[in-house]
Amino acid sequence: MSSRPAADGDVAGLLPRNFPRSCLLLLIAEQPSHGYDLLERLSHLGLDASDPGGLYRALRAMEREELVASHWETSATGPARRVYRLTGAGRRALDESAASLAETQTVVAAYPVRHTSLAPGREASNDGRTAPPGARSRAGSGRPDHASTRPAKSQPATLDA
C-alpha cells in the first residue's frame, strides 16, 4: 500500500513517509472498521488501495504496537470480519501525526507565497550567494544557511511497517 493516488497525478514521495498509516489511524478513529471498508475509505482519500496485503500487514503491525485493537464481528449474511478500533496509544499517535502534518502544511504553504513574491527576472546577487527573503544566514559568514531552505529528502510513503 503506497501513497500513490487512485486517480491521475503522482504524489508518491511528496507525502510524509507514514502518511498512509496516519490516514488509517484517522479512519479508524472516525469509525471502527474492517479491512475491506478501510481499503475503500483510503481510496476516497486519494491513496492507492490496490494492495490489500499491505493494508493487513500495516493493521497487524499497528495492533502489535497497541495502536489499534481488533475483535471478530459475526454476521448472519456473511463471514466473520475483524473490526479494528483505536486504542489510547493510537489516539496519542493520531494527535502527534496531526500536529506534525499541520507543521508540514505551514512550511509547504509558505513556498508558493515566497515564489509569488519574487519580482519577474529577479536574480540573486553575489554569485548566487544571497539568501532568499526570510532565510537565515550562517553565523559570521554572511552566506545563506541553505539548510533552512533546502527540502528534506523524502521517502515514498508506504503502509508496510
Descriptive notes:
By secondary structure, this protein is mainly alpha-helical. The protein is 40% helix and 9% strand. It contains 4 helices and 3 strands. A 3-stranded antiparallel β-sheet has the order 1-3-2. A hairpin with a 7-residue loop joins strand 2 (68-73) and strand 3. Helix 1 crosses helix 4 and helix 2 (35-44) crosses helix 3 (52-64). The protein starts with 18 loop residues before the first helix and ends in a 44-residue tail after the last helix.
Which features characterize this protein?
single chain, 161 residues, mainly alpha, 3-stranded antiparallel beta sheet, elongated
**Net shape:** elongated
Largest sheet: 3 strands, antiparallel
The count of strands amounts to 3
Helix content: 40-55%
Order of helices and strands: HEHHEEH
Classification by helices and strands? mainly alpha
Distinct helical segment count: 4
Strand content: 5-15%
Query: What would you report as the Rg, rounded to the nearest angstrom?
Result: 21 Å
Distance between the termini: 11 Å
Which strand order does the major sheet show?
1-3-2
Give the overall pLDDT as a whole number: 79
Q: List the uncertain runs.
A: 2-7, 144-151
